[in-house]
Write a structure and sequence with these properties.
By secondary structure, this protein is of the alpha+beta class. It has two domains: 103 residues, Probable tRNA modification gtpase trme, domain 1 (Gyrase A, domain 2), CATH 3.30.1360; 63 residues, Alpha-Beta Plaits. The protein contains five helices and ten strands. The strands form two sheets. Strands 7-8-9-6-1-10 form a six-stranded mixed β-sheet, covered by helices on one side. The protein has a four-stranded antiparallel β-sheet with strand order 3-4-2-5, with helices on one face. The radius of gyration is 17 Å and the shape is globular.
């Protein structure tokens, strides 16, 4: 008898059956993002950071000194692993199955997130391209600004439901909608 493994997203029960047309303020949950942890070896921090910035199909997310998340929504795990293995002075681990990526965008996104994080999200303080680990309510997440009114939140899979519910509650007054991304 062959064993068949099915991928079930951590937010299936939260989103499926509740999807609506996207409002201007919208939360889009990535179905299968590729997310690797990258740690620079001592003395290699700058070289690893520059190599991550130059890697194709990879968006580096700063986590702390000598630590990043390498995120891709376009390349597969093997492709990203191949690019990362070419970076000298770094150790990498695939975290894709243990993380959930949510993208939130819209004209009220900063107001929604301000209810959940204790960080100044003004573009002059947290510009597009910036990312950092922080508390989202009671959960440690990585928050990245991906555009003027767009952010990505990466959370541990086991806390994804809590983060999702908090976001939807904080976005209720702004008619926040949610759906899975295509694919």
């Amino acid at each position: 008898m062959a064993l068949t493994l099915l991928h079930r997203h951590a937010l299936e029960d939260h989103i499926l059956g509740f999807e609506t047309s996207a409002n201007p303020n919208h939360l889009c949950v990535a179905r299968r993002p590729v997310i690797f942890s990258v740690l620079a070896h001592a003395g290699q921090e700058q070289a690893v950071g520059l190599a991550l910035e130059a890697a194709p199909d990879i968006a580096p997310r700063f986590c702390g000194p000598a630590e990043w998340l390498a995120v891709s929504l376009t390349a597969g795990s093997e492709t990203v692993a191949g690019h990362l293995s070419e970076i000298s002075g770094a150790s990498v681990v695939d975290q894709s199955d243990g993380k959930v990526l949510m993208a939130i965008s819209g004209p009220s996104v900063r107001k929604i997130l301000a209810k959940c994080v204790g960080v100044d999200l003004h573009p002059q303080a947290f510009a597009p391209g910036h990312s950092a680990n922080m508390l989202f309510g009671h959960v440690a997440v990585n928050l990245a600004r991906t555009g003027p009114d767009a952010f990505e939140i990466i959370t541990p899979r086991s806390f994804a439901g809590s983060v999702y519910e908090d976001l939807m509650e904080m976005g209720r007054e702004f008619a926040l909608t949610a759906s899975f991304s295509g694919g």
